Amino acid sequence: MADLRPFLLKPSDSLAEAMTRVSANGQGFGAVVDDKRSVLGTFCDRDGRLAMLKNVPDTAAVSTVMAPKLTKLVRLPGKLVVEGGKLVDVLTSERPTVDAMVMAGGRGRRLRPFTDKVPKPLLTLGTTTIVERILANLAVAGVEDAWLALNYKASLFERRIRDGKHVGLRVQYVREESPLGNAGALAMLPARGAQHVFITNADIITGLDYARLFDFHRAHGGLVTMACVSFATTLKYGVVRTKGTVLDRMEEKPELRFLCNAGMYVLDRSVLKLVPKNTFIEMPTVLERVRAKGEPVHIFPLIEDWVDAGSPEEFQEVLFRFATGEQT
């Protein structure tokens, strides 16, 4: 019988607290219970992210976003065992494996001179490189097979990563004879394999547990899920709102917030057929081809740390965070 404590949530817990708790239990879901452990509802990582897409504040009580009773139990990546209305056990299910492709062929010009001799994904953070950190985290999330798409200084990756055993999965390589964009290498993946394929840029530093993204994608059942990160910017001017020629109101240097592409996707393997061989193509084009088929592209909002260390200043900041233990 499982230890139930990591899966128990109080109805008064905040959305942020609930997300932290279901992440910590490694399964991404839990039960909202009263003082007598009677089940009031269920909550999973997906519930929290959907609430955030609706701009529900993370201070809101989890009881306001939970699935009441057990009416939506099927959407959980495991099973709650309830007897007499009380939680008595939690059964975790084995998740289907996911293949992965890591796009590591870029030149990394914005990070020069760091990348003149070493590709950006092979730069060291803490005790390992950026790309090895990605691969090791994919292994923890259940990925067994990963492909690295290479171009610039490809041999350095092959010498460092080898067969991938030291990071916990099998690594194979595809070489772009000429740059194919951030999606062209998908045409070199084998037609057969896991139903779902995870795609990531090789220079992304994130605290995301990839299993949460995989669960989210399976729950929606669509062809594509795109991870997005919230980005805020403050205008340096006051904004004037009008009604016709008359001033309505003014907003002094407002903060604008956008969802931006985080460079990570989960695709149904059938999407690979939309990528022509030996052709330069970017992921936005692939997504538009999916949408042209009448299929939705689902959005997975990141709440975890996410860094695209594209400039020397950004990379130095990341190095500092690792050196001080602020990020591991």
Topology of this protein?
Elements: E1 8-9, H1 15-24, E2 29-33, E3 39-44, H2 45-53, E4 67-68, E5 78-83, E6 86-92, E7 99-103, E8 124-125, E9 128-129, H3 130-140, E10 145-150, H4 154-161, E11 170-175, E12 196-201, E13 204-206, H5 210-220, E14 224-234, E15 239-243, E16 246-251, E17 255-268, H6 283-292, E18 297-302, E19 306-308, H7 312-323
Parallel strand pairs: 1-2, 7-10, 7-12, 10-11, 14-18
Antiparallel strand pairs: 2-3, 3-4, 5-6, 8-9, 12-17, 13-19, 14-17, 15-16
What is the helix tally?
7
Spatial shape: globular
Radius of gyration, whole Å: 22 Å
How are helices and strands ordered from N to C?
EHEEHEEEEEEHEHEEEHEEEEHEEH
Report mean pLDDT, rounded to a whole number.
87
Distance separating the two termini: 32 Å
What fraction, in percent, of the residue positions are helical?
A: 10-25%
- Enumerate the strands of the largest sheet in spatial order, edge to edge or round the barrel: 11-10-7-12-17-14-18
Structural class: alpha/beta
State the major sheet. 7 strands, mixed
Low-confidence stretches: none
